[in-house]
Specification:
The structure holds 2 protein chains of 2 kinds. Chain A is built from 8 helices and 11 strands. By secondary structure, chain A is of the alpha+beta class. The longest helix of chain A has 11 residues. The chains are: A alpha+beta, B mainly alpha.
């Protein structure tokens, strides 16, 4: 049934992604692929894997495939004030998932018990309309299987009783070396993740579209120290300028090195 | 959005087929002019055939065409499903309507009901097709008030031209009311498209890279520094289709000329006794132009649509 569940429980499993901590290593994306290529959504097909289609003038469509998690890099601000922010993006398991309601077959559904949005690969006809309805680009089509695939929040891991309790978290969360990803019940205001969102001003992506995503993002913190207060130069350019004006050192070894290098 | 040929053919053919069915049923119901039974049969049968070709074409872009029947199940929430349901249901009244021209029946009231059902289901199917696009909040150029009317008007317009041509072939007759109706529809279609283009050009999306990432503010711009992969992802292949502004201007002009202005002139010439060429030749030229215009119009409808997900992939606006 692609109508949204009417007796949805309060449980909303989801992720909180801290953009202040993320170092852009792509480990979440890789471990996601690793787990899911053998799980509920297997296989996660890749095409042109070895980029073997390179033409004489060097053009190549490149290797590509199904990934549930992608790490983008954004530049915020311009010039000296700019900041590089790594931005992992996956399904946000929205409360108003248009990807579910547009599905003509009922293959896309939102689970009553925990709010996870899934695709049933046995009934999906591969019309791709759900990917058009998703503003976050979270769904990717598997051309080989002919069905749409997406983040399952590692449903086959988080409820897996064969795993130790500590391992029952999504693969992306388990692997993040920086601890930038947290998993929990965002429907419970007292859960760790909800408190984190509360404390850090967690926000929704594209709130204007009203999809009401469950996953939240935490903003990068503002710098605590102004570099200028610390006596540090404003920029690399001024550092270089200053370097020109420094007097040659009196250290005889350095003088000798300088002579050798200046030859 | 990537313009998929199968979907362009489907929406244009089924629009024309349902358009002509609806007009034919209306002519019969309101008795605008007496329909030659042979003409009635052939034009409704060919319309159904056109619709069927369109529907089959639409299944070819599916990953699993043989599961297409499942698409009839979610009519409560999905416009695509509703379209499927109306498309299947419309065969019932339209089939009976078609056959009724061959088997004279004394039950005129039943034929009247069949006509009304044919009109309703034909228009409802085209309405649902347009709603699939118009209901997507992710694409500003589709989530627009004029999308549904334009789909309906162009469907009726193409269908009516087809009916006029068949009329000259089978009946050797002309009913100028139909020609005037086509001229009216063609003018409305052209004006609606101009208004639509003006509107999508002069409005802006609420969404930006700033809202998509939540990182921007009034004095901080956000732009993509690095894409997630070196090659194109599914999202970029499906939604990243972009068309140069220069080409889009030219194609818009071609659309207005071939969809609206040229067919209007030709259909008008058909009504003039002094016309140098036979009405049949004129009609066929009109069909070729209007269908070509419809294809270009549909292609542009996709090519000019910008999906918000592209904001994550370097689009500066959508």
């Amino acid at each position: 049934m692609t109508s949204l569940p009417t007796n949805q429980t309060n449980k909303k499993l989801g992720l909180v992604i801290d953009l202040d901590i993320c170092v852009g290593c792509h480990a979440c994306a890789v471990n996601c692929k690793e787990w899911n290529a053998g799980g509920h959504s297997a296989p996660m097909t890749d095409w042109n894997t070895y980029s073997g289609t390179e033409t004489k003038n060097g053009e190549d469509s490149g290797a590509w495939g199904v990934w549930f998690n992608r790490v983008h890099t954004f530049e915020v601000g311009k010039g000296q004030e700019s900041k590089t922010v790594y931005f992992p993006r996956s399904c946000l398991h929205c409360d108003e998932p248009a990807c579910v309601t547009v599905c003509p077959t009922g293959a896309s559904y939102k689970r009553e018990e925990d709010g996870i949005v899934l695709v049933n690969p046995d009934t999906c006809i591969g019309c791709k309309l759900c990917s058009w309805a998703c503003p976050y680009g979270a769904r990717e089509y598997d051309e080989t299987d002919g069905v749409m695939k997406k983040c399952t929040l590692c449903i086959d891991k988080i409820y897996n009783e064969n795993l130790d309790e500590i391992d029952r978290i999504p693969a992306c969360v388990a692997t993040c070396p920086a601890g930038a990803r947290s998993f929990g019940d965002l429907g419970d205001p007292n859960s760790d993740v909800s408190r984190l969102v509360e404390d850090r001003g967690g926000y929704d992506l594209m709130p204007e579209l009203d999809y009401r995503p469950v996953n939240k993002y935490l903003p990068p913190r503002e710098p605590q120290i102004n570099v200028l207060d610390d006596g540090q130069p404003l920029s690399l350019v001024s550092m270089a300028d200053n370097a020109n004006q420094t007097e040659p050192s009196n250290n005889s070894i350095l003088k000798w090195v300088d002579t050798i290098l200046s030859r | 959005m990537h313009p998929a040929l199968s979907v362009i053919i489907f929406t244009s053919l089924s629009g024309a087929g349902y358009g002509s069915l609806a007009i034919l049923a209306a002519v019969k119901y309101f008795d605008f002019f007496t329909l030659n039974p042979l003409y009635g049969f052939f034009s409704s049968a060919i319309s159904l055939l056109i619709v069927t070709v369109g529907l089959i074409s639409s299944t070819t872009h599916l990953g699993h065409p043989r599961r297409a029947w499942r698409a009839l199940s979610q009519w409560r929430s999905s416009w695509l499903s509703r379209e499927g349901v109306f498309a299947v249901l419309s065969y019932l009244p339209a089939g009976v309507f078609c056959v009724s021209f061959l088997i004279p029946t004394p039950f005129n009231s039943i034929i009247d009901i069949i006509c009304l059902l044919t009109i309703a289901f034909s228009l409802a199917t085209v309405f649902c097709t347009a709603k699939i696009y118009a209901s997507l909040k992710t694409i500003r150029q589709w989530n627009h008030l004029l999308v549904v009317p334009v789909y309906l008007i162009i469907g009726l317009f193409d269908g009516a031209i087809f009916l006029v041509v068949l009329l000259t072939i089978i009946d050797g007759l002309q009913f100028f009311q139909l020609n005037y109706f086509i001229i009216f529809l063609g003018a409305v279609a052209g004006l609606a498209k101009i208004l639509y283009w003006w509107s999508i050009d002069s409005t802006q999306s609420q969404s930006s890279t700033s809202t998509a990432t939540g990182l921007g503010s009034s004095n901080k711009s956000v732009s993509m520094l690095d894409a997630p992969t070196t090659s194109e992802t599914f999202i970029m292949r499906e939604m990243g289709f972009a068309i140069a502004r220069k080409h889009s201007r030219r194609l818009r002009l071609i659309t207005i000329l071939t969809l609206s202005i040229i067919p209007i002139i030709i259909i008008f010439l058909m009504t003039q006794p002094i016309a140098l060429v036979s009405p049949l030749v004129l009609g066929i030229i009109a069909i070729v132009f209007s269908y070509f215009g419809t294809i270009i119009e549909r292609w542009l409808f996709f090519a000019e649509a910008k999906h918000v997900a592209m904001l994550y992939y370097g689009a500066s606006k959508v």
